[in-house]
Specification:
By secondary structure, the chain is α/β, with parallel strands linked by helices. 40% of the residues lie in helices and 17% in strands. Strands 2-1-3 form a three-stranded parallel β-sheet, sandwiched between helices.
């Protein structure tokens, strides 16, 4: 029997309630959730964990979603971003 592969989804959202709601829905469907409150935390997360998909808020401080995506592109990460 083949083991089920875990899908890691990074949720980068500065609103804790929104982040936890998304995480609850996705984790109930079997996804592994990584949390980040801003772009800097998101970068730290992708450096430490394999990420299959990133759900990213555009307006976060001190680093927002656009800056995070720019970091991904410049550094050669191939992670789909929503």
């Amino acid at each position: 029997m083949q083991e089920k592969a875990f899908i890691n989804i990074l949720i980068a959202e500065d609103n804790q309630v929104s982040r936890e709601m998304m995480a609850k829905i996705l984790s109930s469907r079997g996804f592994n959730i990584l949390h980040a409150a801003d772009g800097n935390e998101a970068i730290a997360s992708i450096k430490e964990n394999p990420v299959d998909l990133a759900i990213v808020d555009i307006n976060m401080a001190p680093m927002g979603g656009f800056e995070f995506v720019r970091y991904l592109v410049v550094n050669g990460y191939d992670i789909p971003v929503v």
